[in-house]
């Protein structure tokens, strides 16, 4: 029995080292030692259930506590940096390492090794697949972007410019959000008309054409537009 338990711990250690090496080479927060300790510790906890003779239910209960505890550990490696979340993949790797350790502790060597292979494939092969997907042209992405079109014109022609903008919206695949007007500081007799709209980035040329047409109006002194952060389209 002692040899069998030692083999289980050795399997968990080896699987943890295999997963941890990949994380360490990428200089992640949870690297070789952390991943190995999580896998080995999970194995030890399950081994405790085996040694106490509580049966399958006891081992299953201990495994549930291991998953719960690793959740807190995973939360420690997730960070927020300038509005973006980092470390989720490393936290998921910790979670999977705990599962590998639990399987090893329960004596399921085949699934433990298979799980290790799956984790390594996910962190290497799928990593490259993700990069290839992210490198695809934005025209293929399911995104919408908010644009602001700003026109400066004579105050007397404000209504005409607003009408021209509204007509352009109906003739192009543009999603009209708002249309506002305000006085131009330091330039009496001039108005600034701002149109906010949403559209797919592949239709940006439509916005450029609309801005070009408006710039040809005699009363218009300037036309500009800016794009804001893209967001996924709602399903």
TrEMBL record:
Pfam family of the protein (one): MgtC_SapB_C
Secretion signal, residue range per the UniProt entry: none
Localization: Cell inner membrane; Cell membrane
Membrane topology label: Multi-pass membrane protein
Magnesium as UniProt keyword: no
Annotated stretches, region: Disordered: 216-235
Keyword terms of this UniProt record: Cell inner membrane, Cell membrane, Membrane, Transmembrane, Transmembrane helix
Span of domain MgtC-like C-terminal: 147-225
Domain of life the protein comes from: Bacteria
Function description: Virulence factor required for growth in low Mg(2+) medium and for intramacrophage survival. May be involved in regulating membrane potential by activating Na(+)/K(+)-ATPase.
Protein family (similarity comment): Belongs to the MgtC/SapB family.
Name of the molecule in the record: Protein MgtC
The organism of origin for this protein: Paraburkholderia sejongensis
């Amino acid at each position: 029995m002692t040899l069998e338990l030692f083999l289980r711990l050795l399997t968990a250690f080896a699987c943890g080292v295999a997963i941890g090496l990949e994380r360490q080479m990428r200089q992640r927060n949870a690297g070789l030692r952390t991943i190995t300790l999580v896998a080995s510790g999970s194995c030890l906890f399950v081994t405790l259930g085996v040694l106490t003779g509580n049966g399958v239910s006891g081992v299953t209960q201990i495994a549930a506590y291991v998953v719960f505890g690793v959740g807190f550990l995973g939360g420690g490696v997730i960070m927020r940096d300038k509005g973006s979340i980092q470390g989720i993949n490393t936290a998921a790797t910790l979670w999977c390492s705990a599962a590998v350790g639990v399987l090893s502790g329960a004596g399921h060597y085949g699934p433990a090794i298979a799980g290790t292979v799956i984790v390594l494939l996910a962190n290497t092969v799928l990593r490259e697949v993700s990069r290839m997907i992210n490198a695809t042209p934005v025209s293929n992405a399911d995104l919408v972007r908010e644009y602001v079109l700003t026109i400066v014109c004579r105050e007397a022609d404000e209504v005409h410019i607003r009408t021209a903008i509204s007509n352009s919206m109906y003739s192009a695949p543009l999603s009209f959000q708002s249309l506002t007007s305000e006085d131009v500081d330091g330039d009496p007799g001039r108005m600034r008309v701002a149109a906010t709209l949403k559209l797919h980035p592949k239709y940006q040329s439509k916005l450029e054409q609309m801005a070009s047409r408006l710039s040809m109006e005699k009363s218009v002194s300037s036309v500009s537009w800016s794009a804001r952060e893209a967001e996924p389209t709602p399903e």
